[in-house]
Amino acid sequence: MKTIYAVYGDPVEHSLSPVMHNAAFAKLGMDCEYHKFRVSKSDLGDAITGAKAMGFGGLNLTIPLKETALGFVDPDPLCDAIGAVNTIEFRHDKVIGHNTDGIGAMNALTLEGCVIPNSRILILGAGGAARAVAFQLAEHKAYVTIANRTVERAIALTENVSRVGEACAAGLEDIAGLVAESDIVINTTSVGMYPDINNTLVTADMMHQGQVVFDLVYNPLETMFLKEANKANAITIDGVMMLTLQGAESFRIWTGIKPPVDVMEQAVRDGLNK
Ligand code: NAP
């Protein structure tokens, strides 16, 4: 009998997780199927219990369910620290919560040849995505600076992240100075995301050759931030890599199998181009 996996969200129609995971299952010849279900916050507990009762292989969660889900799982330590769940594993009688967003971002950097320990990493933004990325990178001994438009949010996140590693907070006033002294610059804000496609917080004159510039935004694929980075001869990474690699980590957690990342990445790129 087929094993069923799913993503829950509200809205969830846009999710590329089904095409990404189904491409991996097909490539590996696994008798599994991945679906998307619209689930409201108030129904989340029942929907998780139902999936477990029906023998689902695992779940992903997207907006707005990631924080609410903490009340229905045993979170692993990283997921607990981040305060959000994006992957649920059903193991024996347990419902375990994981967060693979930060691992996805870190693996996107290491695939590009970045060495995380001792790197000076500037994270632009202090929202949900920034939280997962900052915890992961600080825990892996990077020197993290979190710069946000609302500096109080950067300070609050820095205080939390400082429990696991080195982090400091800033506003965006001296963004040029912060970028200049960083090895890696990561945009975790929604600036540059469709329809705001002509905007970027950082321009080419602030960046330098060899610097790694990573945008979590994947719509459009080449954001203004990455276009500016290319002008400065920086090394660029787009948001598809994080999307793919967080999914690959979920797949590994559920199945114990290392999935075909290239197949998953292509499925996401094809899905975005439709
Ligand atoms: P979020 O929690 O709403 O956080 C948004 C962040 O953007 C906040 O730090 C906010 O600053 C900042 N921001 C928004 N407009 C701004 C502006 N005009 N100028 C400066 N800063 C601005 O959102 P999120 O969930 O973290 O997602 C952020 C982006 O990451 C989205 O584009 C999302 O699609 C992308 N993402 C990608 C992946 C992936 O797998 N590639 C995964 C997760 C998220 P304030 O605090 O000052 O409001």
Strand content: 15-25%
CATH topology annotation of the largest domain: Rossmann fold
Percentage of residues in helical conformation:
25-40%
User: Gyration radius, to the nearest Å?
Assistant: 18 Å
Classify the secondary structure makeup into a structural class. alpha/beta
Considering the protein shown, what is the CATH homologous superfamily of the largest domain?
Answer: NAD(P)-binding Rossmann-like Domain
Please report the total strand number as a whole number: 12
Q: Using the alpha-carbon principal axes, give the shape.
A: globular
Number of domains: 2
Ranges with pLDDT <50 over ≥5 residues? none
Please identify the top-level CATH class of the largest domain. Alpha Beta
Strand order of the largest sheet: 2-1-3-5-6-4
What would CATH call the architecture of the largest domain?
3-Layer(aba) Sandwich
Describe this structure in words.
The two termini are 32 Å apart. Helix 1 packs across helix 10 (261-273), helix 4 packs across helix 9 (239-255) and helix 9 crosses helix 10. The mean pLDDT is 97. The longest helix has 17 residues, at 239-255. The chain contains 10 helices and 12 strands. It has 2 domains: 3-98 and 241-273, 3-Layer(aba) Sandwich (Rossmann fold), CATH 3.40.50; 102-237, 3-Layer(aba) Sandwich (Rossmann fold), CATH 3.40.50. Strand 7 (120-124), helix 5 (128-139) and strand 8 form a beta-alpha-beta unit. The strands form 2 sheets. A 6-stranded mixed sheet has the order 2-1-3-5-6-4, sandwiched between helices. The protein has a 6-stranded parallel sheet with strand order 9-8-7-10-11-12, with helices on both faces. The protein is α/β, with parallel strands linked by helices and 274 residues long.
